[in-house]
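Entry:
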Amino acid sequence: MKIQLFITGGTIDARYNYVKAKVDYDVTRVGEMLDRGRVRVEVGTEQLMLLDSGDITDGQRQQILEKCQAAEEDRIVITHGTDTLVKTAELLGRNITDKTVVLVGAMIPYVFKGSDALFNIGAAVTAVQILEPGVYVAMNGKIFNWDNVQKDFDLAEFKELS
């Protein structure tokens, strides 16, 4: 089984830029996360963009959809910023039914101590191998269906819709 992993950015890949005194993006660290997590399933990675999810446009969301639809693999993981992850999951969920797609992010960047990134990537890689076709979100040790998930901005975690 081969998994396709598309990288779009988000907190999972953010770093702190001391010169600009803000979080930004220089390179993806997803390959390092897969190596550090000792992932032994075959994973192909492709960086589509490296953006804060608040900066992802509808056109770029469409690009993510088209990449998923065109992928030879039927198991896909997408790293994504958490602020608009649900919006992208909805677009994919309404348009993809024949593949298993898992979106994943982090609340704390991988490069920061105490990050949830490595755990979340591991959960997503595992989940995509065992879930039925559909679109899901892997966060906080839980798997959510694309149409029953929301980000609780006050608690900084994902939960089912109320």
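Helices lie at 30-36, 58-70, 85-95, 117-130.
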